[in-house]
């Protein structure tokens, strides 16, 4: 039946009529509803599909009570905003959120001016999906009747579902670790010289650096192909400090499942990397240490200041968040995100800060930690609509990690965000996306 092979958005009245012609029967993957189900019933049915083998719910269909065979498709009254309502129910009412597809209103084959709706939930790699409010984990079962109905999962079924999710969590950890290894390899390279092989590595510790990764909390399936990914990352540029991010002198390379942009160290830039992979993770890494003040041949001038500038760090987080926002939009991914941040190589290196934009103040260096990392939960909606609020969360956690807690209050964060806009040459924002 075509209803199992077509996306919900492509289904037509003819596809529904085919169900009647074929005498479709409710099954472990098919459910008929004569009336529009409420939120609890909808979540129970759809989560049971996702937790089992996936399935389709047709609203506006009547079935024989004995064997579940489709009898008619009389439809229901038009339901304005039904797609948005169901998607929101699934996002807010299940953990982790269910990703479902909902059709537009399809004219009922009965020809009575009413409509049918088709809701599809694929088998989920991040199961079990719990229905919030202690309503449990539901699976499709015919243990107690000939018709498949949602039943609360047994302990063994929940363990099986958790093993399924474990594979996806391990994939995300592996993808992030791979990006970090690639960045460390890039930082370890000596400056390229004539006739020198690119893979030769420098001796010594890695420089101070920040790494940020935006991506699906559960990368269960690729969000795009590698060829498509290469085009997106090559063409996307964000305005930054009078030029673009990534910088025009960066070059694109491909690696397994990934396309990267590599920025070499020069008079303007520190060495950096952007990586996007087919699973939807977008990783950014850059060196952090900078020097302020004149140089002399043989070393720093006596009055120069050496350290990590807070505004450069903040400006980098802002531009990465904007770049990730546009990349994720181009990939058409919607759902839960995780933002991973790592700041390393900072032991004994002071942070630099300016209250008025002129004088440079040295802040105490990290006394014990050479680095720290943390993760923040987010959603694509939050990144798209409240990007600055997400950056403020990153900044707050970073300031605590730097032992700079007095700068982590709400008023200080808002002031710092505005300074970050100015550092990026984005102008003074009338309002922030908080």
Helix percentage range: 25-40%
What structural class do you assign from the helix and strand content?
Answer: alpha+beta
How many structural domains can be distinguished in the coordinates?
Answer: 2
Secondary structure: number of strands: 26
Share of β-strand residues: 25-35%
State the separation between the terminal residues, measured CA to CA.
Answer: 48 Å
Which ranges are low-confidence, i.e. pLDDT below 50, for 5 or more consecutive residues?
295-302
Q: What's the arrangement of strands in the largest beta sheet?
A: 15-16-17-18-12-23-26
Mean pLDDT, nearest integer?
87
Major β-sheet, in short? 7 strands, antiparallel
Q: What's the multimeric state?
A: single chain
- Figure out the total of helices: 9
Shape category: elongated
Please give a handful of descriptors for the protein shown.
single chain; 434 residues; alpha+beta; 2 domains; 5-stranded mixed sheet
Give structural notes.
- By secondary structure, this protein is of the alpha+beta class.
- The protein folds into two domains: 2-153, Methyltransferase, Cobalt-precorrin-4 Transmethylase, Domain 2; 169-189 and 205-294 and 301-423, no CATH class.
- Helices cover 31% and strands 26% of the residues.
- It is built from nine helices and 26 strands.
- It has helices at residues 13-22, 39-51, 82-93, 155-188, 226-235, 310-331, 380-385, 387-401, 410-423, and strands at 30-33, 55-59, 62-63, 70-72, 94-95, 100-102, 106-107, 115-121, 130-131, 136-141, 149-152, 209-216, 238-240, 243-245, 251-255, 258-263, 272-277, 282-287, 290-292, 295-296, 299-300, 305-309, 336-344, 351-353, 361-363, 371-379.
- A seven-stranded antiparallel β-sheet has the order 15-16-17-18-12-23-26, with helices on both faces. Strands 1, 2, 6, 7 and 8 form a five-stranded mixed β-sheet that branches. It has a four-stranded antiparallel β-sheet with strand order 5-9-10-11.
- Helix 6 crosses helix 8 (387-401) and helix 6 packs across helix 9 (410-423).
- The longest helix is centred in the middle third of the chain and has 34 residues, at 155-188.
- It is elongated, with a radius of gyration of 27 Å.
- The two termini are 48 Å apart.
- Residues 295-302 have low confidence and may be disordered.
């Amino acid at each position: 039946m075509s209803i199992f092979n077509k996306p919900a958005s492509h289904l037509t009245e003819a596809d529904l009529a085919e169900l009647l012609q074929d005498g479709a029967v409710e099954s472990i993957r098919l459910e008929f509803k004569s009336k529009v189900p409420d939120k609890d019933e909808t979540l129970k049915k759809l989560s049971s599909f996702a937790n089992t083998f996936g399935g389709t719910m047709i609203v506006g269909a009547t079935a024989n009570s004995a064997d579940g065979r489709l009898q008619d498709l009389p439809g229901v009254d038009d339901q304005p905003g039904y797609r948005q309502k169901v998607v929101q129910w699934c996002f807010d009412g299940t953990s982790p959120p269910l990703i479902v597809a909902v059709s537009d209103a399809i004219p009922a084959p009965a020809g009575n001016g009413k409509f049918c709706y088709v809701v599809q939930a694929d088998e989920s790699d991040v199961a079990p999906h719990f229905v919030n409010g202690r309503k449990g984990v539901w699976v499709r079962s015919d243990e107690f009747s000939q018709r498949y109905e949602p039943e609360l999962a047994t302990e063994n079924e929940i363990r099986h579902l958790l093993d399924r999710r474990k594979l996806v969590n391990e994939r995300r950890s592996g993808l992030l670790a791979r990006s970090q290894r690639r960045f460390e390899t890039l930082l370890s390279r000596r400056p390229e010289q004539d006739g020198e092989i690119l893979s030769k590595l420098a001796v010594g510790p890695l420089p101070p650096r920040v790494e940020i990764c935006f991506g699906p909390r559960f990368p269960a399936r690729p969000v795009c192909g590698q060829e498509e990914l290469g085009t997106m990352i090559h063409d996307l540029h964000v305005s930054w400090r009078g030029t673009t991010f990534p910088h025009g002198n960066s070059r694109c390379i491909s690696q397994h499942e990934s396309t990267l942009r590599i920025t070499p160290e020069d008079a303007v830039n520190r060495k950096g990397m952007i990586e996007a992979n087919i699973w939807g993770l977008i990783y950014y890494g850059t060196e952090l240490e900078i020097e302020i003040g004149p140089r002399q041949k043989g070393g720093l001038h006596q009055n120069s200041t050496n350290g990590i500038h807070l505004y450069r760090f903040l400006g980098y987080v802002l531009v990465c968040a904007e770049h990730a926002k546009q990349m994720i939009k181009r990939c058409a991914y919607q759902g839960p995100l995780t933002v991973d941040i790592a700041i390393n190589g900072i032991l004994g290196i002071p942070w630099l800060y300016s209250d008025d934009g002129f004088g440079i103040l040295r802040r105490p260096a990290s006394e014990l930690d050479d680095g720290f990392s943390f993760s923040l939960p987010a959603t694509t909606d939050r990144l798209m609509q409240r990007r600055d609020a997400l950056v403020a969360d990153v900044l707050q956690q970073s300031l605590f990690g730097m032992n700079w807690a007095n700068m982590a209050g709400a008023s200080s964060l808002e002031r710092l965000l505005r300074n970050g806009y100015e550092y990026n040459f984005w102008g003074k924002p009338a309002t922030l996306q908080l």
